[in-house]
Amino acid sequence: MSTFNNLSFSWPNGTACLREISGTLSAPLTGLIGDNGSGKSTLLKLMLGTYSPTSGSIEVPDNIGYLPQDLGLKTSATIADVFGVTETLDAIEKVEAGEYSEELLAIIGDDWDVEERIQKYIGKLDVHRTIGTLSGGEAVSVALGAVFAQQPDLVLLDEPTNNLDAGAKHQLISMLRSSTIPAIVVSHDRELLAHVDEIAELFNGRLRQFSGNYQDYRDAIAQEQQAAQQQVREAKSTLKKEKDERAAMATQIAHDAAKGKKNIANRRKSRLALGNDKVRAQNTAAKQSSKHAQDIADAERELDSAQRRVRKDAQVYVTLPSTKLAAGTKVLHVQLPPNAEQRDEFIMVGPEYLRIAGANGTGKTT
Questions:
Q1: What is d(CA 217, CA 121) in angstroms, rounded to the nearest whole number?
Q2: pTM of the model
């Protein structure tokens, strides 16, 4: 379990990031979601001890596996280096080559099958391949495997599906679902979030938890938003009513003042009586004005509170730049090898938009 007790965190310039977070994350697989900048990666670093809370406390397991967005892998490192088994593999190779010593046996210990054990995490990749020769998705898969191979008490993953193709993503999801190690995954990937047991959301600096997967979370939020929008409508109606009443009061005060002046002109009352009427009217008006001002202030606060509960649905628009290519202009002409399926050449003509698909390592970027 990971427990937060009134956990707050502010940046050195005083900007608040997390505000009095309390709760316990204990599901087998938790999806940590929130807008960009809401503090998801910051919360993971607080759990790791990289950052210290401004106030409050946090309790997490001692042995935590972590995969950051920036893998931090050296291109010259081998897959064996990432898994931390290079020395063991070297010792096994020396013994198998006929070299024998107590020192080599001590290095190997009971790990004679270490290569077979890590193979399930890296598929058909050679443990001696360097990271620089892998595709982005393959590097992510290797880093993920190394995290789980450590058998930690808890795994923290920050956007693990970045650069993964469909096959690698399904492998990751299968690994997470079958693993006995609980995991907290920061992600915007709805396909991954469809398989979590709980959603933990960071919103306006606070943490909320929802049982179920991403769709269950969306359903719960939709119901909340309907209620919040109704509260906004009611708050707007109340505010309008209070302002109308204040306007009516102001009109009545002006009418009474005009009536008092008319009485003075017509001498219908003595100056003393008129003076007393004026004082009483002013006192009454002051009390009514103060009450209406307070009522309006209360109504405005209620409206502001209701509006804060309404979420803005962010929509992303991608505008492709207009082309200056004339229709029919040959852009690309590729001669395909004789054994290529269906055709022996590929020609791209004019302003076409193409999608290049393929598994990790098949050469898309190349």
A1: 31
A2: 0.67
CB-CB neighbours of 228 under 10 Å:
17
Instruction: Give the amino acid at 96.
Output: E
User: Does residue 30 contact residue 193 with C-beta atoms inside 8 Å?
Assistant: no
User: Could you read off the pLDDT tens digit of each residue along the chain, which spans 366 residues?
Assistant: 899 999 999 998 988 888 889 999 999 999 999 988 888 999 999 999 999 999 999 999 989 999 888 777 888 889 988 888 888 888 888 888 888 888 888 888 888 888 888 888 888 888 888 988 887 778 888 888 888 888 899 999 999 888 777 877 887 888 888 888 999 999 999 999 999 999 999 988 789 999 999 999 999 988 888 887 888 888 888 878 877 777 777 777 667 666 655 555 555 555 555 555 555 655 565 666 677 678 778 778 877 777 776 777 656 777 777 778 887 889 999 888 877 667 788 889 888 888 888 887 788 888
- Considering only CA atoms, give the Rg of the chain: 34
How far is it, in rounded angstroms, from Cα 18 to Cα 23? 13
List, as own/partner pairs, every contact residues 106-111 make where C-beta atoms lie below 8 angstroms and the sequence separation is at least 24, other chains included.
111/85
Beta bridge partners of 8: 55
Look up the CATH superfamily of 1-72+134-212: P-loop containing nucleotide triphosphate hydrolases (3.40.50.300)
Tokens 């393929």 belong to which residue? Answer: 358
Task: Name the strands in the sheet holding 2-10, side by side, starting at the edge strand that comes first in the sequence.
Answer: 16-25, 2-10, 55-59
Q: Give the start-to-end residue ranges of the domains of the chain.
A: 1-72+134-212, 78-129, 222-308
Residue with tokens 């997390």: 18
